[in-house]
């Protein structure tokens, strides 16, 4: 019965492939975590900006209403002076 010397080398080659797969898995998981962090920051930024835009719109609406009331009061006073 002949013994092949390549049997031992095959085991070493298999271990090398397993290490490579593990390294690739770690790199893949790291890439996925980085992508997730970027997406989370984008969502947070959108929420913050969305709140700011909503606040700005409400502020502009309130200012418009106040200015409109001021103009109405001035116009009423002018009308009374004309009478």
Explain what you see.
- The chain contains one helix and no strands.
- It has one helix at residues 6-82.
* Class computed from helices, strands and strand pairing: mainly alpha
Whole-Å distance between the termini? 127 Å
| Shape by Cα distribution | rod-shaped
Helix content: over 70%
Backbone CA Rg = 36 Å
Strand content: under 5%
Q: Helices and strands, in N-to-C order?
A: H
Uncertain segments are none
Number of helices: 1
Question: Can you summarize the main beta sheet?
Answer: none
- For the residues shown, what is the average pLDDT? 76
Task: Please report the total strand number as a whole number.
Answer: 0
In short:
This protein is mostly helical. The chain has one helix and no strands.
What is the topological layout?
Layout: H1 6-82
List keywords for this structure.
83 residues; mainly alpha; 1 helix
């Amino acid at each position: 019965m002949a013994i092949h010397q390549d049997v031992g080398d095959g085991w070493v080659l298999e271990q090398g492939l397993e290490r490579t797969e593990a390294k690739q898995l770690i790199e893949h998981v790291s890439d996925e975590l980085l992508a997730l962090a970027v997406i989370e920051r984008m969502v947070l930024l959108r929420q913050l900006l969305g709140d700011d835009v909503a606040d700005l719109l409400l502020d502009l609406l309130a200012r418009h209403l106040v200015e409109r009331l001021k103009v109405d009061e001035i116009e009423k006073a002018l009308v009374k002076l004309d009478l």
